[in-house]
Design brief:
Blueprint (H helix, E strand, L loop, with lengths): L1 H22 L7 H18 L9 H27 L8 E6 L5 H10 L6 E7 L2 E6 L6 H15 L5
Helix pairs in contact: 1-2, 3-5, 4-5
Length: about 160
Amino acid sequence: MMGQWLLAVVVRFVVFAVLWWVLAEGGMYQWWFGVAMAAVGAGLSLALLRPTGVWVNPLAVMRFVPFFLRQALLGGVDVGRRAVRRPLDVQPTFIDYTLKMESMAARVLFVCMVSLVPGTVSCELRGGEVAVHVLDGRMDARGALDELERHVGAMFGARG
């Protein structure tokens, strides 16, 4: 338990210190203020959000970034294309998607990211199932959601 807190303090301090350094445009002229603010930020974040023991795989996060950007672009293009096409090319429907991930943090992130999948938006998380609105029932929404779940699951250590 103490090791988990120590790791959380160090990681959060480093994150806030790097954030300060970025905001200061790499300048080190007031480094002492940056160190103090990083310590305050780490302390406040620990008071507001206690360590949970959930660990995110940094390599999987780096693999998620290009996937995220690609999906965001494809989703925007798809919705834009459908919006200007006449007659509207949509067959809206709802599907229930059953999650394979056990981690609640992973499930919540998945629900937040569903709207990345072109033509979808999450509506409700019910235990291990997500209600998803699909803009066009003819598209392979389940396959796209499976791919998203693999990426999110990998960030939280899930296999497959």
